[in-house]
Amino acid sequence: MTTAPLALSLGDPAGIGPEITVKAWRALREQGPAFMVVGDAQALASAPGPPAPIRAVTGPEEALRVFSAAIPVLDLPLAAPVVAGQPNPANGGAVIRWIETGAGLALSGAVSGLVTAPIAKAPLYAAGFRFPGHTEFLADLTDDGRRDGPRGPVMMLVAADLRVALVTIHAPLAAVPGLLTIETVVNAGLVTAQALKRDFGIAHPRLVLAGLNPHAGESGTIGREEIDILGPAARTLADLGVSLRGPLPADSLFHAEARATYDAALCLYHDQALIPVKMLDFWGGVNVTLGLPIVRTSPDHGTGFDIAGRGLARPDSMIAAIRLAAQIAARHGS
Q1: Using an 8 Å Cβ cutoff, are 97 and 25 in contact?
Q2: Which pTM value belongs to this model?
Q3: Is residue 333 classed as helix, strand or coil in its secondary structure?
Q4: Could you report the per-residue pLDDT of 253-284, keeping only the tens digit for each?
Q5: What is the mean pLDDT of residues 123-150?
Q6: C-alpha–C-alpha distance, residues 272 and 213, integer Å
Q7: What is the DSSP letter of 174?
Q8: Angle at Cα 264 formed by Cα 182 and Cα 330, nearest 5°?
Q9: Distance between start and end Cα atoms, the chain
Q10: In terms of C-beta density within 10 A (0-12 exposed, 13-18 middle, 19 or more buried), how is residue 31 classed?
Q11: Which of 136, 197, 209, 256 would you label with 83, given CA atoms 20 to 30 Å apart?
Q12: According to CATH, what is the number of the domain 154-278?
């Protein structure tokens, strides 16, 4: 079991990140897992609800000692005051720095993993951010240049008894068919199978591959991607020792009886994976990034600007993300 705390980057401070972080600390302070916030102490102190004790710390060891009494914060201040619900591009540089710092702590082993509160992309672009989202940014930050095997990022969503991994992530739906190749599907399948073993402790993982078209193409009469790309990819994965069925019609993969037959479903685009996750557990789903040299999870929701500052945000997904990150980190350290 690892004894290092997690790092938690605060996300967009004008959103619900500070509020759900405080609420998660209240839920976890007595039994953990412990975490250290990388962000702005004043933004945390201004979160709606009863004031929480906050302690500025210099590193993970100090954070671990104070966690039960106060929220430990590696204080990296913002450039401008926070107005709930109104993201400020002037603070984009600080938000980026929080993510970079958390990833660096995780890479060095000083913390056991990274949990990221939600960000909004538009304010970050003004600060030079050039990635579609957290997942792609963290892949760049942790890239050591080696290409000697399958590599992430592969986005996985976890909710109750369902795990779904994505071949494409933040891509427009119209672009998805052009992004699907035998190689991309095989890479995602290999990364997912390896992660199920290493991160989730499943000795012999079982995968299913969703089809792209209705009825999985129906023998090519409703599209050829299943014949030209997905079928060959499935056969390649089987040749490489991955237990995988498919491509199968996506509309019959996610009911309870179907979920019992596999450990993860390999989906081809964002909503194909996220709709069943959010139908199954809208409040408690977790985003996990597979195939990186660090542990990374996040809540499966956005910044919540529409309810920021009102005390309405539920911390379920943040709490689940913290717990799952700690579980994965413990398996890595065992």
Answers
A1: no
A2: 0.94
A3: helix
A4: 999 999 999 999 999 999 999 999 999 998 99
A5: 84
A6: 11
A7: G
A8: 115
A9: 6
A10: exposed
A11: 136
A12: 3.40.718.10
